[in-house]
Design brief:
homodimer; alpha/beta; six-stranded parallel β-sheet; binds calcium ion
Chain lengths: 672, 672
């Protein structure tokens, strides 16, 4: 009987997913139909979740890494009683619906992370599983060894397994022995372009074993769902290794076109929908049909979920009695509140303080923050000694010390960023990660998802310009700062001194629903006369007024602000205003009055930044920057070669003053 | 005797590399000292090369994937008689030297590809090895089966092997059975942050075996160089699999600090240099010393190289007699010349031609070009059916058909771009590759190197905006077009119709030393009245003059140009000029007169593009675009949601006209 209910549920999921895609006239029916058995088993036999409270901290985490199969996930959320209604299913891929074309964690209850770009989901899941280990190590006690105790389940396809990001994340997951990470690999032998063997003939299981994973095979994932159940049970028992279960399925199972790429990325069509319904014994002319037996079965699961949550709450109450401080801290973390006065931990500077590289100033902030924010953790992609990201006195996060806050990501930039998205999505943590700024190009796929998915991840990106010197153009970013600035919801900080670094961290930590990138120098910078944390928090501010009616205004960021001071000195006959602009996105958020107050109509604005000038024309009449690749040489020689010296810039400023003759157009005035 | 000469050479390489780094006061001495034995063996016993002609087509290709070890490569080039002098070695990492901080193929003779960003080199090497197979399959004959017959050798460290790009490329190399690719893995157990086992404990050889590689181990790569030689011989014999030889070395071998991260990224220091020289029995107070025995040994190798080239030339002459047409074609390819009149193969359009998506128009161009350019080959990262990149009637590039021109890269975007860099670096080929535009974020690390390293790679990037509709914000690029525009040496095309697509391909194909990205629509676009290929080749041009004194000027790209036509119709009382700007970088190359001729002083310029407005203020007083992430819905609904409709834009144009009142400032006038 239980068998036939399960089969009935599975067939319902298949037909319903096909209907969802058909109604939208857009989407991917094949993978949901193939993955229905594994999804049903996870939802009905294994996963802890509470549909009435999708954010229940004790829940298992589920990630659909092949996000194009999201009709499946929406159907599961609907059936199991999340706030995803039948009408929501009928609005699949429609404007402002709760069921967008790929899963979006900030739209749909029950979605942990946004997936679709392949490989991200599995890599996020590594972060989710790391977060579980961190909380468990930190909060579980001998008396309550399972307060934090959840699994992370993933469904993925072969697309995810071909992506390099997945290789990086999986290698790290094996190294970290993440035994509660269980991946169900939908092995359907089909990719968009045809059979996988046109390009993908590696031995996936052998590869995962080489990473230190436990692997399992289910031969018939279409019909033999009990074997899927047994495999997941086996996987749960192996607690010192992540598990990969390869499950052979047919894409579009139940369709006459099953097992071919034709059912991958387009609706089945009216006739084929009828065939599918016939095949599964469903009424041919009824759409979005959920038989009563199926809906009743899932209703029971909702009740089970609610009691699981109640039990956990009772356990937590008991834990709180025995461990009031720990319980209070965990409660704070779950709520996402920051402790009172945390920002006072960060230093302030005056001009007499020693010149330091902003990466060194960042190191100070990281270490101060780590003292007051137990939720602050992270590390570097094998450049900790250059990025200066180690939390001193803390431990490496590793299988012996899951409460360590220094994460050694290895030379795995893309996975690093995606893992931080996962760490953040778990709840309660503020992850940071680091590499050279230029290597944003190695992790941009995941950095973008930090921004899109509202993940607070702090990117500590050092060696932020030609100022890194000898390593040369392969390592010198030119286009990276414009790229980050053009990315919605990303704060791009390029601080010029100690106070600006502190301000950058204050804003990055207090912005709970978006990422920040700190672009930091390798080379030392002086502490500026006129900088304060409060001014820097405006995103741009007048560092030196020069005059109420300046002859020219220089706007600059990071290492070039002090260069602008030299330029002003080189032009004693001109009244020069200097604006420091550590974060243009933040400046855009200020009032129009404040924004306009920085600039004086008629005075030409010249921007100076050791990066592409692209984007500066919004603020400057005449941008100075580097519109070519850099060069390998000691720092001074590179700056000179590329025309970023006080005398060359001074000549250009004089040219601009002459050219505009006090009549530079007002750039701050816009028609809309 | 031969043994002791080899040892003498190896020790010389070690000491010389240490001196090179020491003199520069910057660089990485450890890996060169550890890799000296394998480098010496490759250069002296295995590799075919002709120092007097670094571009000799018949040469073996060598890639130093751990590019930070380039002191080693420069020393090898110097010793073996390339145009890299002792003075060049002494100018290591200095401005405008021939020996920059990482290898740059466009600077130093004998460097095949720029390396340093980890993983790129090995992935380039997969492309180099694929190119060899392609030429061999296409040109070798039964009588001359070895006209094209070279190996591709790589030295890499564990950093490269941790990168996802390397996993992608290696999986594909195994699938393609690239038996003449031989990778020497410098297994020194050290990364920048310390011992590799802090983060990297996978079984590398088992992983490579899972990819279908042949693997070998050398236990003592410091001293037992004969075993390295035997391993390379073994690797050469296995012709149906790429080979990975794991060679255990000590980083910084010969230094008292050997085998620790302390010798990774900084000069050894004066005292330690003395220790090293003592250890190897070199005079302590002499720097840049090459013993006569060593220099003589390498001189002989130079002579051998010259005769190898002569022999090849003789073979080619004989081949040319028997196969005059093939020989002529190969000669043309090696010279990098395009066949007469190739561009006539591309279609021209008139407004009565059917509306087509620019990806469809691109498909036509790809297929026309493939007919006239045998060197044109490429494919997609598992989206051929969406990117429309298949060369119809051609074969898949695979182990059965290495002369196939359809490359199935798999879901491996980053490796795809790096492999294309390698295909191009081999010489003679024009590779293209494809994915959705948004997934530039997955391959940016390699795309940047196409531009930096002067590789002509054509990126066919479809689904270029919110116009892709239902797939939603995870797939809709916003920041990608600005990113590409801010990247030096990249042409970013966003064509608006058939003629502009043809123009984009003409420019992309004829630009032999830089990459191009074509941003192409999913949705159909009408053929515009006023577009021509010739005008489009200016990068931007007046599509509709409107008036000599327009009230407003709209500048737009791609899918929004026809939208601008609707805007003009919605404003019958205004005289509207429309500028189509398929390639802003190309427009920047035009004369100042031409550039200024498009714009009329006083007339406000409004840009319209379905992407971030970032960067448009250079040309436009008031940019209209999308400064947020997109949305999942049918295309019309998304455009409406984001304010890109004729009526909304018309209202903004009217506002701009009112605001500026004929006095919009002249943006084309610049002080410098
Ligand atoms: Ca698949
Ligand atoms: Ca190493």
């Amino acid at each position: 009987m239980s068998h036939s209910v399960d089969q009935h549920c599975i067939n319902t999921i298949r037909v319903l997913a096909a209907d969802v895609v058909e109604k939208a006239k857009s989407g991917h029916p094949g993978a949901p139909m193939g993955c229905a058995p594994m999804a049903h088993l996870l939802w009905s036999r294994f996963m802890k979740y509470s549909p009435a409270n999708p954010k229940w901290f004790g829940r298992d985490r589920f990630v659909l890494s092949n996000g194009h199969a999201c009709a499946l996930q929406y159907v599961m959320l609907h059936l199991s009683g999340y706030d995803v209604t039948m009408d929501d299913l009928k609005s699949f891929r429609q404007l402002d619906s709760k069921t967008p074309g790929h899963p979006e964690n900030f739209i749909t209850p029950g979605i942990e992370v946004s997936t679709g770009p392949l490989g991200q989901g599995l890599s996020n899941a590594v972060g989710l599983a790391m977060a579980e280990r961190f909380f468990a190590a930190k909060f579980n006690t001998a008396e309550c060894p399972d307060l934090v105790d959840n699994y992370t389940y993933v469904i993925c396809g072969d697309g995810c397994l071909q992506e390099g990001i997945t290789s990086e994340a999986s290698s790290l997951a094996g190294h970290l022995a993440l035994g509660k990470l269980i991946v169900l690999y939908d092995d359907n032998h089909i990719t968009i372009d045809g059979p996988t063997d046109i390009t993908f003939t590696e031995n996936v299981l052998a590869r995962y074993e080489s990473y230190g994973w436990h692997t399992l095979v289910v031969e018939d994932g279409n019909n033999d769902f009990e074997s899927i159940g047994k495999a997941v049970e086996e996987a749960k028992k192996v607690t010192n290794k992540p598990s990969l279960i390869k499950i052979r399925t047919y894409i579009g199972f139940g369709s006459t076109k099953q097992n071919s790429e034709k059912v991958h990325g387009a609706p089945l069509g009216k006739d084929e929908i009828v065939n599918v319904k016939k095949h599964f014994g469903f009424p041919e002319d009824v759409s979005f049909h959920v038989p009563e037996e199926v809906s009743n079965h899932y209703k029971e699961l909702k009740i089970t979920g609610a009691s699981l949550e109640s039990e956990w709450n009772a356990k937590f109450a008991k834990y709180a009695e025995a461990n009031p401080q720990k319980a209070a801290e965990l409660t704070r973390l779950i709520k996402g509140e920051l402790p009172e006065g945390w920002e006072n931990a960060l230093p302030r500077y005056s001009p007499s303080d020693a010149a330091k590289a902003t990466r060194q100033l960042s190191e100070i902030c990281i270490n101060k923050l780590a003292q007051v924010l137990p939720e602050f953790l992270g590390g570097s992609a094998d450049l900790a000694g250059s990025n200066l990201t180690d939390i001193k006195g803390d431990k490496d996060f590793c299988k012996e010390h899951y409460d360590g806050r220094i994460i050694r990501f290895g030379v795995r930039e893309h996975a690093m960023a995606a893992i931080c998205n996962g760490l953040q999505a778990y709840g309660g943590l503020i992850p940071f990660c680091a590499t050279f700024l230029n290597f944003v190009g190695y992790c941009a796929g995941a950095v973008r998802l930090s921004a899109l998915s509202h993940h607070q991840v702090i990117y500590v990106m050092t060696h932020d310009s030609i100022g890194l010197g000898e390593d040369g153009p392969t390592h010198q970013p030119i286009e990276t700062v414009p790229y980050l600035r053009s990315m919605p919801r990303m704060y791009t900080f390029r601080p010029a001194d100690g106070n600006e670094v502190t301000a950058s961290y204050i804003k990055a930590i207090s912005s709970r629903d978006r990422p920040s990138t700190l672009c930091l120098t390798r080379q030392p910078l002086p502490n500026l006369v006129g900088s304060t944390v409060e001014k820097a928090l405006k995103g741009a501010y007048v560092l030196h007024e020069g005059s109420e009616k300046p002859d020219a205004t220089l706007i600059s960021t990071g290492s070039e602000v002090s260069l602008c001071e030299e330029v002003a000195k080189a032009l004693p006959n001109l009244k020069i205003r200097i604006i420091s602009a550590p974060c243009l996105e933040l400046f855009e958020e200020q009032t129009k009055e404040y924004q306009e107050s920085l600039f004086v109509p008629g005075s030409p604005v010249i921007s100076v930044e050791a990066a592409s000038t692209f984007g500066w024309h919004k603020y400057a009449h005449a941008p100075i920057g580097i519109d070519r690749f850099g060069a390998s040489a000691p720092i001074k020689d590179v700056y000179k070669k590329l025309g970023l010296t006080a005398d060359v810039i001074a000549a250009k400023v004089q040219a601009a003053v002459n050219f505009y003759n006090g009549n530079a157009p007002n750039l701050a005035a816009h028609p809309f």
